[in-house]
């Protein structure tokens, strides 16, 4: 590891409980699920699985509990080609998420962090220090502690690696972390909950590029000169089965594109296509995501 382009994901892993409801409950309300199912999830593990399925050499750095669920979750990642040798076993149960989906495709997620809360900055630091030089892109998200995310960002700054941060779930980011981010990938709601309240303010805080995902409205790429408007990339029209994990596939594909040396706009186009493929299957990883599928969507429309 690695001489070939590599994506390292420093993030969370969950076992998802998927609950289909007619409509999402309001405060104080109880609703009955129409059906329930289980799937592998966690933004970090989803991002790692997507990067591997798109053909990148991929390593996941995170934590699971000393339990069967954790071991099974790692087997599922290894099956799609993710290197899980840098995953710690810790004294909290493997993370889980309760995902409610309504008939209109809206969702509501409650995450129980468990082992993810124990992802340790020292572990992140030593795991990244063990990676030989090369074309490496590191991806992280906010389902693990701030100091672990910062450790990943600092390692990237030292090694000259791009650092892609999917700021979900959104919370205020420190000036130090913002200044170390190469590409930030919030959705439209998250983009206003990160401290600086607009993409322009995030760029002014030192983020190199902000790519805001807007679901069916496509994505806005904010980069470069202050005052320059964003470049919009339209979404693809596909038969949507489940939007859970679309942002994870997007962030992963963007990182894969950057690891392959694509310019940001090119990587973002690949990411829009990968996210479109990702929503055609159930759960966060249920679609047939592959580079061929994403490329064939890209080729289906003029540049
Ligand atoms: O982004 C989707 C993921 O968010 C789900 O898989 C769930 O585990 C939560 O982490």
Tally of helical segments: 9
Sheet of most strands: 9 strands, mixed
Q: Can you name the CATH architecture?
A: 3-Layer(aba) Sandwich
Query: What ligand molecules are bound, each kind once?
Result: alpha-D-ribofuranose
Q: Helix amount, in percent?
A: 25-40%
- N-to-C span: 35 Å
**Shape descriptor:** globular
CATH superfamily: Ribokinase
Query: What are the secondary-structure elements, in order, as H or E?
Result: EEEHEHEEEHEHEHEHEEEHHH
Mean pLDDT: 95
Task: Determine and state the CATH class.
Answer: Alpha Beta
Q: Any idea what the radius of gyration is?
A: 18 Å
Which keywords apply here?
single chain; 303 residues; alpha/beta; UDP-N-acetylmuramoyl-L-alanine:D-glutamate ligase; 9-stranded mixed β-sheet; 4-stranded mixed β-sheet; binds alpha-D-ribofuranose
In short:
By secondary structure, the protein is α/β, with parallel strands linked by helices. The chain contains 9 helices and 13 strands.
What would you say this structure looks like, in words?
The protein is of the alpha/beta class. It has a single domain (6-11, 43-93, 116-299), classed as Ribokinase (UDP-N-acetylmuramoyl-L-alanine:D-glutamate ligase, 3-Layer(aba) Sandwich), CATH 3.40.1190. The chain has 9 helices and 13 strands. The strands form 2 sheets. A 9-stranded mixed β-sheet has the order 5-4-1-8-9-10-11-12-13, sandwiched between helices. A 4-stranded mixed β-sheet has the order 3-2-6-7. Helix 2 links the parallel strand 4 and strand 5 (82-90). Helix 3 runs parallel beside helix 4. It starts with 5 loop residues before the first strand and ends with a helix. Alpha-D-ribofuranose (RIB) binds at residues 14, 16, 41-43, 46, 97, 109, 111, 143, 244-245, 247-248, 284.
